[in-house]
Amino acid sequence: YKIYPADFVSATEGTGVVHTAVMYGEDDFNLGKNVGLPTVHTVEENGRFIASLGDGLAGLYVKDPKTEGKIIQSLKAKNLLFSEEQYTHDYPFCWRCGTPLLYYARRGWWVRTTAVKKELIANNEKINWVPEHLRHGRFGEFLKDVRDWAFSRERYWGTPLPIWKCEKCEQIAVIGSQAELEEHAGKLPRDEKGEINLHRPYVDEIVFSCTTKKCGGAMRRVPEVADVWFDSGAMPFAQNHYPFSPYETRSHRAGNLAFPADYISEGVDQTRGWFYTLLVIATLLAKGTPFRNVVSVGILLDKNGQKMSKSKGNVVDPWELIPKYGIDALRWYMYTINQPGDEKRFDERDLMNKYRGFIQTFWNCFVLFDTYVEKVPNSKFQVPDSVSVLDRWVLARVDQLTVEVTEALERYDITAAGRAIEDFVITDFSQWYLRRSRRRLQHPASKKEFEIAASVTAFVLLRLATVSAPFVPFLAEAVFLGLKKKGKIKEESVHLLSWPAPKKTGKQEQRMMEKMALVREAVSDVLKLRAEAGIKVRQPIAAAPLKVGFGKDMEQVFLEEVNAKKIGAFDAVITPELKEEGMAREIIRNIQEMRREAHLTPRDVVRCAISGADGLLGVMRKWEAFVKKETNTREIETGRMAKPKATREIAFDEGSLTASIG
Questions:
Q1: pLDDT, position 96
Q2: What's the Cα-to-Cα distance from 601 to each of 587, 597, 632, rounded to whole Å?
């Protein structure tokens, strides 16, 4: 026995000396080849020792504990056992059934990919990787240590290797086409349908004379099939029947092939699979880079970071989630929860938040528009002309959003694009523009004011449907079709629209957006002061602070949002007049909520009955006209209503009112 040095043995584990079995491990095999050890199998393919093995081991299953015990007893009997103990170590098992696996040296067919290592690395440099670190990380390191490709598989199903071998002289013939095979065989096999079929078992029937023309032996196909990743990697060429003439062409691509791909996307595990074989085959054919961009996605785990497995019972069934939240919510979650290459710890609560956040908000924006607008005044959805600072701001912001999304998608930054859309819809469009524009749709001061607000809202909704269509195709289509009914759009689907041309923001628009951002910060500061003073937002205040230089339009937007009468030092003193107005607004809020409970539309006119303390009724009478206008109420009666559609108690510091609608 000899001891050989090996870099795969650790001096920090055990004795630092291990036995080597040349035919049962890659490291062992390479070491054996280097030092000239015999390459002989002592184990059959069925996992049992060969019949000629001594010590009573012949025919025994190698992983049976009884077999292991017999080996130990044999060593003891020969006084060759120094010590025996139990210890834990890594060992491969079948991930499906848990059976111990055996590394087993087999003869096979190989492709010498090491011959094009430099070309592989050079072509990889031309690819835009998302995430970028894969280029020189997981994928790049794999190319640095590239090995020859174990090309054959000992299976029945698969692409048969087109290799015939002479039974007599072992001459090899690699067949390059169907025509060449027919030339040798005379005719090609047909299946039960009468069609030429070169898969197994039909192709194995083809036998022809040795191509040397000398030995007179018969050539039969070797039994192996190709690695299935060859089929995947050859896709860009095989789909066009390349290189046989005529092959399908797409003239706008180099070499008249649909090649290279603009982008591909798969899991990060494909750095050893599809991504790799695509690059290898294209490089071997001297075609260069097979894809310009690749988006590699991380593994989907459960909420605790564990790999999903049926045996663990932590698998999430998408067909249970889709009816609850919709397929677009699931898509949006995947795009925006984190970067594509990051692992995703799936938690249904995160999906629910995405649904309630972006999905419902976007749809509710359209519902608000749909509720008040029957026909879009600007029927062709052209950019509306408005003097309102709020309108000009949202139009500038949606142009800015278009630029952000376009640039992000051009560099395949899907998450940045999605998050930009989400932030605009929730923060800018819903919580700011529509909040401040709702009155112009519900109770416009003039027909022109309504038409401008409706046109701007329609324009923004159409733009949002267009830029979000690649992410949420069904939601975008629903919004688009709703808009199409109200205007003149020739396209039948949002997915047939042209992508909007990005419009760079001018200096004037940029300054306006910066000012609006400062106004919104000031609003946030005032709302904090209100909260500290215990004053509800519906309660008007006398004054709120805002720096000078914003102009009357923005000042008015600020005052409406903070519910203040003028700009000045924060004034928390609630005068009787302000208190009464706050009470009136509280009554309005409750009536509006009762309308929703009764499933009424904004166009439905109601009657209202109110009862309670005389002092509170007096306030109600003082503000009656305002309440009726804001709630679309025809009349307000004092007393109780028979058979109301909805009733509720409205509490104030001074007592309560009972309000009903019918």
A1: 84
A2: 19, 11, 10
Cis status of the peptide bond prior to 65, with omega within 30 of 0: no
pLDDT of residue 254: 47
Does 652 reside within a domain? Answer: yes
Measured CA to CA, the distance from residue 327 to residue 477 in angstroms comes to: 13
pLDDT of residue 194: 94
> 605 near 562, Cβ under 8 Å?
no
Last residue of a domain, one of 257, 282, 297: 297
How far is Cα 21 from Cα 29, in angstroms, rounded to an integer?
A: 8
Q: What number of helices (H) and strands (E) belong to the chain?
A: 22, 19
- Whole-number average pLDDT of the chain: 92
The pLDDT-based confidence of 251 (bands split at 50, 70, 90) is very low
CA dihedral 337, 340, 343, 344 (to 10 degrees): 30
**475 sits in which H/E element:** helix 473-484
Tens of pLDDT, residue by residue over 422-432, are 999 999 999 99
Residue ending a domain, among 544, 574, 604, is: 574
d(CA 648, CA 644): 10
Asked if residue 533 is part of any domain, the answer here is yes
Tens digit of each residue's pLDDT (9 = 90 or more) over 358-410: 999 999 999 999 999 999 887 777 777 888 999 999 999 999 999 999 999 99
Whole-angstrom Cα distance, residue 540 to residue 563?
A: 5
Paired with 295 in beta bridges are: 130, 265
Q: Domain check: are 144 and 268 in the same one?
A: yes
- Same domain (yes/no): 409, 485: yes
Q: Are residues 132 and 265 in the same domain?
A: yes
pTM, 2 dp: 0.82
> Considering Cα of 25, then 30, then 33, then 34, what sign does the dihedral take?
negative
Domain-embedded: residue 17: no
Q: Give the residue from 438, 472, 476, 470 showing the smallest Cα distance to 457.
A: 438
Find out whether 148 and 192 touch, Cβ atoms under 8 Å.
Answer: no
Per-residue confidence band for 478, with pLDDT thresholds at 50, 70 and 90:
very high
Query: Which range of residues forms the domain containing residue 203?
Result: 153-226
Other Cβ atoms within 10 Å of 397 Cβ, number: 21
Cβ proximity of 637 and 628 under 8 Å: no
In this structure, is the dihedral angle defined by the CA atoms of residues 362, 364, 366 and 368, taken in order, positive or negative?
A: negative
Residue 415 resides in a domain: yes
Are 183 and 134 found together in one domain?
no
Amino acid at 606: V
Measured distance CA(653)–CA(300) in Å, rounded = 54
Q: What is the pLDDT of residue 16?
A: 80
Neighbours of 434 (CB within 10 A): 20
Is it the case that residue 267 has pLDDT exceeding 70? yes
User: Three-state DSSP class for 540?
Assistant: coil
**232 with 222, same domain?**
no
CA-only gyration radius of the chain, Å: 38
Tell me the pLDDT band of 549, cut-offs 50, 70 and 90. confident
The one-character DSSP state at 1 is -
CATH code, domain carrying 417: 1.10.730.10
Give residue 252's pLDDT. 43
Non-local (6+) Cβ contacts of 46 within 8 A are none
DSSP, collapsed to helix, strand or coil, labels residue 468 as helix
